[in-house]
Amino acid sequence: MKQLSGLDSAFLDLEDDHQFLHVSQLLILERPDDPDFAPYPAWRRQLADRLHQLEPLRRRLVEVPFGLDHPYWIADPDFDLDFHVRHSAVPPPGTDDQLDQLVGRLIAAPMDREHPLWVSHVIEGLAGEDGGADRFAILTMIHHSAVDGAAGADLLELMLDDVPDAEPPSHAGEWTSEEPPSTAGVLARAAAHGLRRPARGLLLAARAGQSVARASRNPAVIDLADKVRGSLRGPLGSVLNVGRERDPEHDLPRLPPLVTPPTPFNAPVSRYRKFVHRTLPLAEVKAVGKEAGATINDVVVSLCGGGLRRWLLERGELPDQPLTAMIPVSLREGDEDEQWTNRVSATVAALPTDIDDPLARLGAAHDALRVAKQVFAALPGELTPDAAGLGVPATVTAVSRALTRWSTVAPAPFNTVVSNVPGPREPLYLGGAQMTHYIPVSAVADPVGLNITVQSYVDQLDIGLLACAELMPDLHTLADAVVEEFEALRAAVRGSGNDAG
């Protein structure tokens, strides 16, 4: 039995009847030549053979009465693989657009908390890509309380094989279930944890102070302090601003705006989802970045900013100020005691939606991410998972839900989520079927109705765009705009290189 961390529990607490915090992977595979190969039984057998390695798939929740402590995971004694592995299909002609529509419908429902928090759909009926072999897809949804993005990628690599037609692993299907703990037992643990919580808070505060002290010479911290001090008015402001330099140093990094501009997708979300995916060649994305002195992350943020600029311009709704994006930051270092939990924080970066030139947008994205990294380093963001567990769980739940309701009328803290997750560099297989695409499907919540997540796989970059269907029914036009932005950026980089020569 393992207890959920405070951050893991927060992903459960934030759910309601219209926002669902499971994250998903959409895998597309080519059917092998073997006429006896059948995707659904092959995938079910693959998972059955590997369940002993896939701990998050075996665990179900045990709640603590009255919300006095965080829930626990136990190895489900009533585990039923047939409940979790399901069979679907797209109708002819089996296009990618039809697949995206089906994915949007399948993810628009909460997980059943009486079972382990995951479901996997084998989706048949996909036509071949460019006249190639017929394809099928696997959509696996798992709750964010169980894994973060990096752990989800690790889980996928355990589900599949790195060679075709691999032998089943040793100890295939061997695992032991657990009986649920007694109510008295979990209440006794809750009481003990309640006694230790204040001491943990003091320790965490000390660690946070050390983190801020280490960063005290960081220009981003100075910039933030200047902004706070400069905003003060009245007698107190006059005193604190005595001797303040009025000509700021232009080489200090500027933080993104603290108030994000309004957009069509910053509003309360409905329970309906729209999903679209696109693919870019990884080698060309890297080449564009290298020629411009930028990283893949810089290019991804630039493409998202440029795509959003195009989409908003077409609607006549482009704000003068740059949009902002929440950028998830993995805290994993590879030596964690517990792999299957959330070790993630976040920072905020400005998106270059206010800049007209593609090359200038890339430069602005590079600068924005540099500042975002400095801000993250300056603040104790690495303590986020620990801090999330300090409050009394029942109180934290109530506050979380109140903040969720408040967020529907308050300005959005950021406009969208942009995430770039490195994926497997070598092909993965299910029996003789090779996986050709690894497409991320994330989540949206009030009041941020758009998420753009990018996943690299072998030689390509798969882009998954998810939105509230009522806020962005034309999500496909944004996806096309992101691809158009890449073409424009590639042409601009090449043109710049030719001019330089």
From TrEMBL:
Q: Which InterPro entries match?
A: Acyl_transf_WS/DGAT, O-acyltransferase_WSD1-like, O-acyltransferase_WSD1_C, O-acyltransferase_WSD1_N
Its annotated pathway reads: Lipid metabolism; Glycerolipid metabolism; triacylglycerol biosynthesis
What keywords is this UniProt entry annotated with?
Acyltransferase, Glycerol metabolism, Lipid biosynthesis, Lipid metabolism, Transferase
**Which residue intervals define the domain O-acyltransferase WSD1-like N-terminal in the entry?**
4-300
UniProt key word Lipid biosynthesis: yes
- Domain O-acyltransferase WSD1 C-terminal per the UniProt entry, residue ranges: 340-489
Instruction: Name the chemical reaction catalysed here.
Output: an acyl-CoA + a 1,2-diacyl-sn-glycerol = a triacyl-sn-glycerol + CoA
MF GO annotations: acyltransferase activity
Entry annotated with the keyword Amino-acid biosynthesis: no
Task: List the transmembrane segments.
Answer: none
Q: What is its EC number?
A: 2.3.1.20
What the record says about family reads: Belongs to the long-chain O-acyltransferase family.
Protein name (database record): Diacylglycerol O-acyltransferase
Q: Where is this region: Disordered?
A: 164-184
